[in-house]
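Entry for PBG complex. Fields follow.
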Amino acid sequence: MRRSRRTETLRQLAAETTLDRQDVILPLFIVSGTNRTEPVESMPGVVRESVDVLTRRAAGLKSSAVLLFGVPDDPEKDDTGASALRDDGIVPQAVRALKSERPDLAVITDVCLCGYTTHGHCGVLTESGEVDNDPSAALLGKMAAAHAAAGADVAAPSAMMDGQVAVIRETLDNAGFGQTCVMAYASKFASAFYGPFRDAAHSAPGFGDRRGYQLTPGNRREAVREAILDEEEGADWLMVKPAMPYLDIVSDLRAVSRLPLAAYHVSGEYTMLKLAAQAGVISEREAVLEAMTCIRRAGADAIITYYAEEICQWLG
Ligand code: PBG
């Protein structure tokens, strides 16, 4: 076995998996107002920023694709997440700004209500306090249309409402946005690895948890069912989230679907690597590139990662 591993060139010739800078997607957190850059304490190196700040640094972004999250301030939140549907909301503003500065950039938007609702759940509630599926899906459709109207290339629904992909596809088509893709967070698990994100996006549920709509971590067959349903509903992309503890799911989806597949290396996965690197116990660059290569090996075409800018830099 060692003959073909003897030199770097031989190893490269035999390489089964590549990692390219075009394979990574950078998540960005957008706040309202101007001149705001706020470090996210739980995610070293990650910030929340206002549209003007993002606009000023757009030209220097190395990533070829971004995923936008709106982070409204508390007074902008309400029970139904109404500010998420506004054509002039923070995400549509950021989309317009990015598209005018960087028409080459692929702009993906997160479609979910949790950052916009006072209770922090991903949809609207029934009187008894449960997340109400169909009305929530209808709102997500309108939210996606507002993003598409601003010029987003891809809407990425992450709320895990049943039927949300079908509703979003229909709403987009009826509003004249037949060209806008839907990247379904198809198999999204109720994961403790989202912890640092909820600090970044101020989106922790005010009561209860998300286990009534997100997948149970141990359920592999159910994750495949979710993805098949999203494909049938018209998804253009599938996604698995989180990434590293769920590589078997990435591999399963790769086997059952011919759609392009993304994996989301989430906030907890990022922060674990950052803190280990800061503690000097792993080599950051090597560990990150290895992690990303292995996510690709499992079957992901693209990886959503807070390391996207560093990866582009490292890969030159
Ligand atoms: C919102 C959403 C979450 C993430 C992306 N979209 C958090 C959640 O479901 O609680 C997690 C992203 C990350 O941890 O990096 N629905």
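NOTE: Residues 133 and 161 are 6 Å apart (CA to CA).
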